[in-house]
Amino acid sequence: MNRIAVALWNPIVAKEYRSRMRTWRSPLAMTIYILLLGGLGWAIFSSTASAARNSFNGGQAANYGQALFLWLVLFQMVLLAFITPALTAGAVSSERERQTIDLLFVTKLPAFSILWGKLLASMSFVMLLLLLSVPIFSLVFLFGGIELDQVLNAFFVTAVTALTLGIIGIACSTAFKRTLPATVAAYGAAFILLAGSLLFGLLFPTDINPNATKAPAPPAITYLSPILPLIVIGTNGPINGYGIRNGGIYPMAQGGGMVCSAGPNGSGSCYSNAVPIGKGSIGPYNPAQASGTTIPSGLFSGWQYWQATVTMQLVISLIALVLSAILLPPIRHLPWRRRARVAA
Amino acid sequence: MITVEGLTKTYGNRTALDHVSFEVPKGEIFGFVGPNGAGKTTTLRILAALLEPTSGRALVDGADVIEHPDRVHERLGYMPDFFGVYDQLTASEYLDFYASCYRQPKARRKKVADDLLELVGLTDRRDQAVDTLSRGLKQRLCLARALVHDPAVLLLDEPASGLDPRARVEMREILKELQTMGKTIVISSHILPELTELCTMIGIIDQGRMRATGPVQDVIRQLTSGRRLRISVLGQKEEAAAVLKALPTIQEVALVNGAIEAQYDGDDAAAAGILQALTAAGIKVSAFSQLEGGLEDAFMKATSEDV
What does DSSP assign to residue B123? Predict the structure, then answer.
């Protein structure tokens, strides 16, 4: 085995698999996960299938497919946000509590291998859950309206978010000595990532610049949440009415919004293809409305929402992983500490 | 094999180790003795590269514990005073896991596990879950774990604590066997008679300071002002005591459990002179022996005063 293979597949992974799969908890967790996801899928499927039978036409069936898909991906994301921190927040701290961590430190395994092994073992279980959900997601193809690339993108965003939550959980587990505070911190971080960043967009929306040639986009921090890209992927339409100071425009139904096209001299022409949500009506003309599935302006201008989310989450993951690798070893070989020692 | 020079460890204002120095040559069994909180575990954790000293340095087989912890880990096996085991693993899987953590080739791991289980007398428990083993068996398994990479040095922190007398004897036998295999062993313990029997060298630590270190008998001699004799006589105890007290080498004479115990200053020739004086005075000596186990006295003396 070469060095990379040894680093990737280390003894911790094998031991964790063995320990995890020998308890009743793993099959139970998988069963509950499938039952919850399948239950939701079945409920939506059964309610929409009868509606589709009564007034079937291609367009409506496609909407049902979209609705089913959107609910499933969002629900799956929320489920994984609950499961992943539970899997990783005790990864290192439980070794401390069990007094087994010193026995690992005195082996030839580097600290990063210990972290990586813990992470890989936990995340492979999450990936197993994702794989188990594939047959449920195949239901949406009965209705149509969803392309394979949407499913793949949604799974990719979900997987990266789960990975980010997993690495944050490992970082919390490394930083806190006990599992309880590590778990609380990991769930807090998961809440901030999923909901807190969205809340930020509601509380501090982007102001509309009437002179802007591009449609405004929600604050960049909101792309941290996987919810936005999953909605964009699921509806295959823009995010309107969120994260932008309203200015008279009501939120619009999925798939709708102002379709704008920029003119050669920077001016824009827009028309509405949206159905208003709730009471009220479409507000006055406003050139600042998004169209398509790309981010119209700002730091990630021109990017797909999922690309921005994945990029930001991977950066956070990298930072959390590096911090964990620094914090974990019993003796930290930091350059400035080494210099101080030499001087002493 | 082990060199410790001026090792100091402070936690805020509290000094856990204060310029501790000692050496352990290859193949010796070094007993590390001291009351609770004296700094034994701190020293062993620094030697195992698990704790950074505030100052000073420690070398294991020439490798500095701070600069080259990976080399140190290759050379030593460490058994902490308190340790846990993993659920859902059998004894042989437990050893196999740690052997793989030490990068032992897969083909060799099974043999290593079998050999070590045999060494510590756990062959019949190889398929038993480790979390269901008794404390004594877990201690033995942990000792086997410390040996999976065949280290030259063993650091054993209170390996006999919590064991019943039989398990202690078995642990001692295993350690003696390891000594014959050429391992250098550092063992901390509170059980002084066992250390006297097992160790070739000793270090007495108290309040973070090394009070005495060296070969066991040297330390005892250094800390106790004289050696002790147990003398049994046929009657004539008063006369025998009077003869002894008149000798210039005798420091103290006492009657203990029907025998005379005499503390004297000198070597074996001085002891022979004492016996000669008794027989010359017509005392019928039925037993005459050196008293071993002066380690307790030495320990009490070393830890009761500011040396």
Answer: G
Q: Name which of A256, A284, A288, A248 is nearest A272 in CA terms.
A: A256
CB of B199 closer than 8 Å to CB of B216: yes
CA distances (Å), A278 to each of A202, A203, A253, A281, B71, in order?
18, 21, 9, 8, 70
Query: Which of A77-91, A128-142, B178-192 is most confident?
Result: A77-91
Q: Tokens 């690339």 map to which residue?
A: A149
Helix (H, G, I), strand (E, B) or coil at A289: coil
Q: How many cross-chain Cβ pairs, A to B, lie less than 8 Å apart?
A: 76
Q: Hey, what are B16's tokens? A: 């856990």
Work out the pLDDT band at B292, boundaries 50, 70, 90.
low
Per-residue pLDDT tens for A20-41? 888 888 899 999 999 999 998 8
Classify B94 as helix, strand or coil.
helix
- Is there a contact between B78 and A109 if contact means CB atoms under 8 Å apart? no
Among the partner residues A22, A23, A104, nearest to B101 by beta-carbon distance: A104
Rounded CA-CA distance A241/B296 in Å is 82
Burial of A327 (0-12, 13-18, 19+ CB in 10 A): middle
Token output for A80: 């994984």
The structure's pTM equals 0.78
pLDDT at A279: 36
Q: Which residues of B touch A330 (CB under 8 A)?
A: 49-52
CB B62 within 8 A of CB B232: no
B93–A18 C-beta distance less than 8 A? yes
Quick: pLDDT tens for B221-233.
777 666 778 899 9
Question: Residue A146 gets which letter from DSSP?
Answer: -
A14 contacts on B by Cβ (under 8 Å): 97, 100
Please classify residue B21 by burial: count the beta carbons closer than 10 Å to its beta carbon, then call 0-12 exposed, 13-18 middle and 19+ buried: middle
Judged by CB atoms closer than 8 Å, whether chains meet at A100 and B73 is answered as no
Per-residue tokens: B117: 């289980």
Closest CA to B205 of B56, B33, B9, B69: B33
Task: Please tell me the predicted confidence (pLDDT) of residue B259.
Answer: 87
Q: Shortest CB distance from B97 goes to which of A15, A22, A23? A: A15
pLDDT mean over A313-321: 95
Contact at CB, B51 and A330, closer than 8 angstroms: yes
Could you give all domains of chain B from N- to C-terminal order, each with its CATH number?
Answer: 2-216 (3.40.50.300), 224-304 (3.30.70.100)
Q: Per the structure block, which two tokens stand in for B217?
A: 């008998």
Flag if A19 and B87 touch (Cβ within 8 Å).
Answer: yes
Q: What angle do CA A43, A47, A49 make, to 5 degrees?
A: 115
pLDDT in tens, A151-178: 999 999 999 999 999 999 999 999 999 9
- Say if the ipTM goes beyond 0.95: no
Q: Which of A257-261, A284-288, B196-200 has the highest mean pLDDT?
A: B196-200
- CA proximity to A232, closest of A148, A307, A312, A144: A307
User: In this predicted model, which residue has the larger pLDDT, A85 or B237?
Assistant: A85
- CA-nearest of B270, B253, B271, B272 to B262 is B253
For A153, A240, A305, the CA distances from A302, given in Å and listed in that order, are 17, 16, 9
